[in-house]
Amino acid sequence: MGIVDKAKNAAEDAMGKVKETVGDLTGNDELKAEGQKDQGVSGVKKVGENIKDKLS
Questions:
Q1: Annotated region Disordered: where (predicted)?
Q2: Residues 36 and 13 sit within 8 Å (Cβ to Cβ)
Q3: How far is CA 3 from CA 7, 14, 25, in A?
Q4: Fewest CB atoms within 10 Å of the CB: 19, 30, 33, 46?
Protein backbone atom coordinates (compact mmCIF):
# COMPACT_ATOMS: atom_id res chain seq x y z
CA MET A 1 0.00 0.00 0.00
CA GLY A 2 1.41 3.34 -0.98
CA ILE A 3 1.77 6.16 1.48
CA VAL A 4 -0.83 8.23 -0.40
CA ASP A 5 -3.35 5.39 -0.23
CA LYS A 6 -2.70 4.91 3.48
CA ALA A 7 -3.20 8.63 4.10
CA LYS A 8 -6.44 8.70 2.10
CA ASN A 9 -7.79 5.68 3.98
CA ALA A 10 -6.81 7.18 7.34
CA ALA A 11 -8.49 10.47 6.41
CA GLU A 12 -11.64 8.65 5.27
CA ASP A 13 -11.72 6.69 8.53
CA ALA A 14 -11.19 9.84 10.60
CA MET A 15 -13.95 11.71 8.76
CA GLY A 16 -16.23 8.74 9.28
CA LYS A 17 -15.58 8.83 13.01
CA VAL A 18 -16.28 12.58 13.10
CA LYS A 19 -19.54 12.15 11.17
CA GLU A 20 -20.60 9.31 13.43
CA THR A 21 -19.86 11.31 16.58
CA VAL A 22 -21.58 14.47 15.34
CA GLY A 23 -24.57 12.44 14.19
CA ASP A 24 -24.75 10.75 17.57
CA LEU A 25 -24.49 14.01 19.50
CA THR A 26 -27.10 15.79 17.37
CA GLY A 27 -29.48 12.86 17.07
CA ASN A 28 -28.95 12.76 13.30
CA ASP A 29 -29.18 9.04 12.57
CA GLU A 30 -28.52 9.57 8.84
CA LEU A 31 -25.19 11.33 9.50
CA LYS A 32 -24.25 8.72 12.09
CA ALA A 33 -24.95 5.92 9.60
CA GLU A 34 -22.98 7.71 6.89
CA GLY A 35 -20.00 7.96 9.24
CA GLN A 36 -20.22 4.26 10.03
CA LYS A 37 -20.39 3.46 6.32
CA ASP A 38 -17.31 5.61 5.61
CA GLN A 39 -15.39 3.76 8.31
CA GLY A 40 -16.47 0.41 6.88
CA VAL A 41 -15.40 1.35 3.37
CA SER A 42 -12.06 2.53 4.68
CA GLY A 43 -11.57 -0.76 6.55
CA VAL A 44 -12.35 -2.83 3.47
CA LYS A 45 -9.89 -0.80 1.40
CA LYS A 46 -7.22 -1.28 4.06
CA VAL A 47 -7.73 -5.06 4.13
CA GLY A 48 -7.62 -5.21 0.32
CA GLU A 49 -4.42 -3.20 0.16
CA ASN A 50 -2.81 -5.34 2.88
CA ILE A 51 -3.63 -8.50 0.93
CA LYS A 52 -2.28 -6.91 -2.24
CA ASP A 53 0.95 -5.98 -0.42
CA LYS A 54 1.43 -9.53 0.87
CA LEU A 55 0.95 -11.00 -2.59
CA SER A 56 3.52 -8.65 -4.14
A1: 1-56
A2: no
A3: 6, 16, 33
A4: 30
